[in-house]
Design goal:
The complex is a heterotrimer of chains A (about 450), B (about 280) and C (about 325). Chain A has about 450 residues and is α/β, with parallel strands linked by helices. Chain A has two domains: about 180 residues, Periplasmic binding protein-like II (D-Maltodextrin-Binding Protein, domain 2); about 190 residues, Periplasmic binding protein-like II (D-Maltodextrin-Binding Protein, domain 2), CATH 3.40.190.10. In chain A, about 45% of the residues lie in helices and about 15% in strands. In chain A, helix 16 packs across helix 17. With about 280 residues, chain B is mainly alpha-helical. The two termini of chain B are about 50 Å apart. Classes of the chains: A alpha/beta (about 450), B mainly alpha (about 280), C mainly alpha (about 325). Chains in contact: A-B, A-C, B-C. Chains A and C meet through helix 4, helix 18 and helix 20 of A and helix 12 of C.
Chain lengths: ~450, ~280, ~325
């Protein structure tokens, strides 16, 4: 039995100290509350959240954010970045807790699934007499839903094939030319494969799933995942589009073994081991930054119905959590302004949606590439998106390796994707005549 | 056979045994350490795509990678957040568990054992089962995306109470009686008499809790959206997405995150075994 | 001790104890209620708010179609359970978890027990034990995400494992890109990660075994191996039971390694229940489905824990 004396002072110190510390933590936590809400009521700072895939990209956007105070001295923009995949998980969670940034990125694909989180810009456009004529008109439509423009576009571009010129040369394969066919594509891929090198990267756009763009090209059916306005992937056109791609892996063996390791897909191409991949002009910055070989760009090989690809792009919008929409709109106009987009183009991060700024990308990319993109643009069309796009994209990538290895058939794959994506419907831009310049605006 | 040769044979057997055991243990230690060394060697590689098999040799050590990783990501912030969360949780857990453990062990009140039974029952439900509801509750209470929301929801499992009750049950009951007869208040008895007796338990609980909170990933992932609140674990997972294939920067980042824990373990290694020894036998 | 306490109590009740403090009556037992309320208030509030209510809420939410944002919540009864149980791949996921648990727990125990024996207090043959204990404990306290990134590098198609295998002429193993290897990769990494915890636990337990037992056995002619199996293991069995139980419960909930290394892929060959729970709730925005999985997982763990306690009666040797 120990005596209480002698421990008195120490135990008091420990005990009260612990209580005091706990209280301090409580007070600090309650008081500071982290930096929870990102929408202060002062018009000074506008929060902006966006996705990046490399430090180079982040630098481009930070540069553009700093352009805002130059035009509007009482405004500043603070940028938060995250990876592309995490961005679409974060946004709905932020929405459910009312903590979204004021300005947020919106990719055309997600207009249907997170479009309801963005404020329609129609009234702000009219209020400030903002002209949409400098922008590429299909992008305006792709970022709209039910007659509401949800974001101002910053880039667009056709989805094309990028290829490793050095590898082509090393294997004695002539560069692909516009007008080439799918059969030629497969042949090229086979010739490129061997000695540790592969012909084609089976997952698209630095992501983890098969290409919907190629699915269009190979099936000849646009938007094969929407039938009569409803989301539907278990149809022959979609299955065919998937199967032809998967065959490159399990039948022709021209693709590297699939890996779930982080950064695998861009690494495979950038280290020169894979001859061709599906990509778009927004990735020029990363390709140039991480590869050391000359890169060629060419439109898709022709499928049964000719050459078909999608024109894809993204924009910035104002979220419904923003408490200072006017200030945000002003900042927005700078972020998609001539100077900002020219800069983004000159760094290879974006093929500007502002047509007058397009040349900046071309200058950075080189005239060959610019010509290739311009040609490809003629064969690229807007893509219809669905309301369950986020689930659809997640589902597409989950089972990709199984269909690539032949473990499941394309039909089964379609069924899996259908089950995981839930139901959805097609999204239409609606009537934009009130803000589009064409109708006398 | 002479005793001499038997003895020397035994001696040989003994040293052979010693060699074998040491080899096994040190080989295991090398296997354990190797991934860390590999991480360090990759972090120092100059090429962005650093998937080569060189182990510290054959390339110029790019110490600049650490600078790059540190600049691009707010590691200082991440570290502070991890510390705030871990230490905050330790404090809350200690306060909550010692007070409740004492009450269940030494105070008499109606329904005490039934209430404690409820506590024990919840021990069997896994933490992941409450992930979604905690998210909803944090949202409702508006503590989502705050330090409060990071710390408090995890600090009230029955484990700490259970552990402290075990320790308090080993304290002599008549001590409290005697102190009460002396006219001491309950709080005085608790703070100056009881708590010191269970210091070992407090230490064990503190260490367990800190380690558990330091490695916590799922709750911060769900409970915070603001980069300013990201813990080390969360910050690193962001690196994975935003650094793409820059393995050397990623490893530099991981190395930065691991340094504090290495320091911690080295500093606390004396208490590790001792503390766990007490905890293992509930202070008996 | 009990008898002494009650003597004191009865004596104090009768007012016959030594020096009654001036002006204070000895308190009766049921007066503790107010004190108890005071001591329990902090814990009970937090416990109700952050443990009890969430558990009830988990079951509640599982009966609803509850989208993360937008849309209305709708009562659907057992529909979520039906759709979760019949979803393609759910049973594969359950198998994944059982595979993980069935491989990881024994491996963890074997490694930690062996190394604990080698680092035990009586093992004089091994030098530098303090250093070694730190080394083995390091992976335990490393932030889980950092370790996972580290192992992603090691498991890379062109990473160090495959390079070393190549030196021996063995083909590259698709550690993270094949359905067959994804789970074993996670298991191996998890053993590296977790064995140190149990090891330290067992070493601590060994320090409590009195030397006299071993001395007596030596005199009887028992060698070190026999001593280990006849003395150490049985005396350590309550601790081994505790360690196994904790390891079991946490391994059923494995998430972070799978999330970082493979994100459950390829396909769902390395998807665990908690990973699926997270995906359903936060990627597919179906909170109701996520909760249904949570409840099912809780049941599974309850059953296994129950089995463990039954085994305990047979295998664990308690000292009396």
């Amino acid at each position: 039995m120990r005596k209480a004396t002698g421990y008195r002072s120490r135990s008091v110190r420990y005990g009260l100290g612990a209580l005091a510390a706990a209280a301090a933590v409580l007070v600090a936590a309650c008081g500071s509350g982290g930096s929870g809400g990102s929408n202060p009521t002062t018009s000074g700072n506008i929060s902006w959240s966006f996705w990046v895939g490399s430090p180079g990209e982040a630098a481009v956007w930070k540069h553009n954010a700093d352009l805002v105070p130059k035009t509007y001295p009482n405004l500043s923009v603070s940028l938060t970045t995250t990876s592309f995949t995490n961005y679409w998980t974060k946004l709905p969670i932020e929405a459910s807790t009312h903590s979204m940034s004021c300005i947020a990125g919106l990719q055309y694909g997600y207009v249907g699934s997170v479009g309801n989180l963005f404020m329609p810009l129609n009234s702000l456009i009219k209020k400030y007499n903002y002209s949409l004529s400098p922008f590429e008109s299909t992008m305006i439509k792709e970022l709209s839903s039910h007659g509401n423009l949800l974001a101002l576009p910053y880039d667009f571009g056709p989805v094309v094939v990028t290829y490793n010129k050095a590898l082509f040369q090393a294997k004695g394969v002539p560069d692909p030319q516009p007008g080439w066919t799918w059969a030629q594509f497969v042949q090229d891929a086979k010739k490129l494969t061997g000695g540790g090198d592969y012909g084609y990267l089976p997952v698209t756009l630095g992501g983890t799933s098969l290409s919907l763009e190629l699915a269009y090209d190979l099936s000849g059916t646009p938007d094969a995942y929407v039938q009569n306005g409803a989301f539907n992937v278990t149809n022959p056109a979609f299955v065919k589009g998937i199967q032809e791609q998967a065959e490159l892996s399990y039948q022709d063996h021209v693709t590297p073994p699939y890996s779930t390791a982080p950064g695998w897909s861009s690494q495979e191409f950038d280290t020169g081991k894979v001859g061709m991949e599906v990509n778009g002009p927004w990735d020029l910055i990363d390709i140039k930054g991480q590869s050391s070989f000359p890169v060629g760009w060419v439109e898709f090989p022709a499928g049964p119905d000719g050459v078909h690809s999608y024109n894809e792009g993204s924009g910035f919008g104002i979220t419904k959590d923003c408490k200072t929409p006017d200030a945000a709109f002003k900042a927005l106009t700078v972020l998609v302004g001539q100077e900002a987009l020219t800069y983004a183009g000159s760094q290879g991060r974006a093929f500007p949606a502002r047509l007058a700024a397009d040349s900046s990308w071309g200058t950075f990319a080189g005239s060959d590439t610019e010509a290739a993109i311009t040609t490809a643009l003629q064969k690229a069309e807007p893509q219809e998106v669905t309301t369950n796009w986020a689930q659809f994209q997640t589902a597409l990538s989950k089972d990709t390796p199984l269909v690539l290895s032949g473990q499941i058939s394309a039909q089964q794959y379609a069924q899996e994707v259908a089950a995981a994506s839930g139901s959805g419907s097609g999204v239409s831009p609606g009537d934009l005549s009130s803000i589009l310049p064409a109708s006398g605006g | 056979m002479s005793t001499e040769s038997v003895r020397s044979r035994r001696r040989v057997a003994r040293s052979a045994r010693r060699v074998v055991l040491n080899v096994i243990v040190w080989a295991a230690a090398f296997i354990c350490l190797f991934p860390f060394l590999w991480m360090l060697s990759t972090a120092l590689k100059p090429e962005a795509n650093a998937i080569t098999s060189n182990f510290f040799y054959g390339y110029h050590w790019a110490w600049g990678n650490f600078r790059q990783a540190w600049d691009f990501f707010p590691f200082g912030r991440f570290l502070i957040n991890s510390l705030v969360m871990s230490i905050g949780d330790v404090l809350v857990v200690l306060v909550a568990s010692t007070t409740a453990g004492y009450a269940f062990a030494r105070l008499r009140f109606p329904g005490r054992d039934k209430l404690f039974g409820l506590y024990v029952a919840t021990l069997l439900i896994p933490a992941s089962a409450t992930l979604v509801p905690l998210f909803l509750i944090a949202k409702t209470l508006h503590i989502y995306n705050t330090y409060f929301g990071l710390i408090f929801p995890l600090a009230f499992t029955a484990f700490g109470t259970f552990l402290m009750r075990q320790f308090f049950r080993t304290t002599p009951e008549e001590l409290r009686e005697a102190a009460r007869l002396d006219g001491a208040s309950e709080l005085w008895i608790f703070l100056r008499v009881m708590l010191p007796l269970v210091r070992a338990g407090v230490a064990v609980l503190a260490v367990f809790t800190f380690i558990a909170m330091w490695g916590e990933f799922l709750w911060p992932l769900v409970a915070t959206q603001n980069e300013n609140l990201y813990t080390l674990n969360l910050g690193l997972s962001e690196i994975q997405g935003q650094y793409g294939s820059y393995w050397s920067y990623m490893m530099a980042g991981a190395a930065i995150a691991i340094v504090p824990t290495v320091v911690l373990v080295i500093a606390l290694q004396k208490y590790l075994v001792k503390g766990l020894a007490f905890g293992a036998f509930g202070g008996r | 001790m009990t008898s002494r306490t009650s003597v004191l109590e009865s004596r104090s009740r009768a007012g016959l104890t030594g020096r009654p403090a001036p002006g204070r009556r000895p308190r009766r037992p049921n007066r503790d209620t107010r004190t108890a309320a005071g001591f329990l208030s902090f814990n009970l509030t937090g416990f109700t708010l952050f443990t009890l209510i969430p558990m009830a809420l988990a079951i509640y939410v599982s009966f609803f179609n509850w989208p993360l944002q937008g849309g209305q919540t709708r009562f659907v009864g057992l529909h979520n359970y039906g759709s979760v149980l019949s979803s393609y791949g759910f049973w594969r996921i359950v198998l994944n978890v059982l595979y993980f648990v069935g491989a990881y727990v024994p491996l963890n125990l074997i490694v930690s027990l062996t190394l604990a024996a080698l680092l035990g207090p009586r093992m004089r043959a091994v030098k530098g034990k303090a250093f070694l204990r730190v080394v083995f404990f390091l992976p335990v306290v490393t932030p889980l995400v950092a370790s996972s990134l580290l192992w992603a590098l090691i498991y890379n198609q062109n990473g160090i494992f495959n390079t070393v295998l190549g030196w021996f002429g063995l083909g590259p193993v698709p550690w993270l890109s094949s359905s067959d290897w994804s789970m074993p990769s996670i298991i191996i990494m998890s053993v590296w990660l977790g064995f140190g915890y149990n090891m330290i636990l067992f070493v601590a337990g060994m320090t409590n075994i009195p030397d006299t037992m071993y001395d007596a056995a030596s005199i009887d002619g028992a060698g070190p191996i026999r001593q280990f199996f006849r003395i150490t293991l049985p005396l350590l069995s309550p601790l081994i039971f505790f360690g196994t139980l904790m390891t079991l419960i946490t391994s059923f909930q494995v998430f972070t390694q799978a999330y970082i290394l493979t994100n459950g892929g390829p396909g769902n060959s390395s998807t665990t229940l908690v990973l699926q729970l997270y995906d359903d709730a936060f990627q597919y925005f179906r909170l109701g489905d996520g909760s249904a999985i949570a409840v099912l997982l809780a049941f599974m763990i309850l059953i296994v824990t129950g089995l463990m306690f039954i085994l305990q009666r047979r295998l664990v040797h308690y000292e009396h």
